[in-house]
Design brief:
alpha+beta, about 210 residues, about 25% helix
Amino acid sequence: MKKYLLAAAVIAAAAVTTAPAAAVAVAVPTAAVTTAPGPAASGPAAPATAPAPATAPPALAATASAAPASVGAASAAAAVTRVRSGERIDAGGGFTVWLTEDGKHWSGPDGFENFRSVVDGNIDRSQPGVSHQSEGDASGIFHSGLYYGTKKAGRVELTAADGRRTPATLLELPGHPGWGVWYAHTGTSGQRAAVALYARDGSLLAELPSF
């Protein structure tokens, strides 16, 4: 009888000690399932947002809208046109102008050729100067001349008796020879125009009063 009671006590003790172990083994995976949701449980993914268009930085916009740089220096540099020796230039109004190493040549509507030398000693090329010839009729006056004694010529300007100013076209041979030719057209009021030679920086180099 005591054997049966001892066996039953052993069985009961075994049941008490094994039951908690079984509960722990089951609880761990259950807790893992209920407390660690998978990615699918988070709902649909938010739609991707397209990147905003790139915009110019404010500094670039300011640069683009800034006032244009002064073109005074470029205009002065472009005032003198380089021509080949003997190259015939249509000066307008039936006049033609060309340069050679010894001076200025020109012809009018009548085809008669004229020449002014820069090597015969009649001009002093050691200092800035300007000369002036003119011819025309009731339709207008053609003016031309030499400028010399400088490699900084920027412009030649005529001033008529009534104060009207006319810029001239400047021609030079390649190599900055220190002289060149200018020409311009005016109305009959400019027949006795004064002539002034200016440097590229705007300073007056030489002037010739009206005649």
